[in-house]
Design a protein that fits this description.
The protein has 249 residues and is an alpha/beta fold. It has 6 helices and 6 strands, in the order αβαββββαβααα. It has a 4-stranded parallel sheet, sandwiched between helices. It has a two-stranded antiparallel ribbon with strand order 5-6. Helix 1 runs parallel beside helix 2, helix 4 packs across helix 5 and helix 4 runs parallel beside helix 6. The radius of gyration is 22 Å and the shape is elongated. The protein starts with 24 loop residues before the first helix and ends in a 32-residue tail after the last helix.
């Protein structure tokens, strides 16, 4: 079988495309809203279009504002133009790398590209099917077994979604912008950026090490006060409220 990137992550599978891989932005937006309202912290969008959609953009903005990280595929047309929703500022754009660590020839690129992830000849599960009896056709035999190798930024995108899940397991306080920065900073080319590669190929090991190093370096500062504490005049106390109350008594 196949092992995913994260460990013990819960997966919420929402179907928004038909059996031919077609659908519309209204269904996508509805699924995004449903996922956010039902507890999703990471959304993988292995889909895209070269046309901007306000409905799609509003749904992604809603998710971002609610603290949800969105990984989206950059597109497979080998053009310097990132598909939507990957091209939105509220989504994280993922291109595909090949086995040599270079941008796959089909992967879209441009100034909105964030990173590359493995997307060339990736083995994945597929619905099993009966190709109509015995066959010597390799594709039929693979498909009948429930596994198939595929190329595409749609194959690359889940690697980033899985890594985002690990980041949040270590730093549950992170928002989507923090998760994005953690993945960018640990990529192979950071801090260098190019339209062809973004910040380079993701590196889960480096990303996790950076997060763990941050936690290790945190020091606890504890001041012991007498109990009960009898404060003298002139003590200033600061409070933070979220949301801010209209009055404080």
């Amino acid at each position: 079988g196949i092992a995913g990137v994260p460990i013990n992550s819960k997966i919420m599978a929402l179907k928004i495309l038909d059996s031919d891989g077609n659908g519309d932005e209204a269904d996508e937006a509805e699924a995004i809203l449903w996922a956010v309202r039902n507890g999703a912290r990471v959304i993988n969008l292995s889909l895209g279009s070269d046309e901007y959609s306000s409905v799609e953009a509003d749904a992604c903005a809603y998710a971002f504002d609610k603290g949800v990280f969105i990984a989206a595929a950059s597109g497979n047309d080998s053009t310097p133009y990132i598909f939507y929703p990957a091209g939105l500022s509220t989504a994280f754009s993922v291109g595909a790398s090949n086995s040599e660590g270079n941008r796959a020839s089909f992967s879209n690129y441009g100034p909105n590209l964030d990173v590359l992830a493995p997307g060339d000849d990736i083995l994945s599960t597929v619905p099993t099917s009966d190709p109509g009896g015995p066959s010597n056709n390799a594709w039929d035999m693979w498909h009948a077994s429930g596994y198939l190798s595929n190329d595409g930024t749609s194959m690359a995108c889940p690697f980033v979604a899985g890594l985002a899940s690990i980041v949040l397991s270590i730093r549950p306080d992170y928002g989507p912008g923090d998760v994005a920065e953690a993945i960018r900073r640990s990529a192979s080319d950071y801090p260098s950026f190019t339209n062809e590669r973004g910040y380079g190929v993701i590196n889960a090991s480096a990303c996790i090490a950076n997060l763990n190093a941050h936690i290790t370096n945190l020091t606890q500062k504890v001041t012991v006060f007498p109990n009960p504490l009898r404060a003298s005049a002139g003590v200033t106390m600061k409070f933070a409220f979220s949301p801010e109350p209209s009055t404080v008594k």
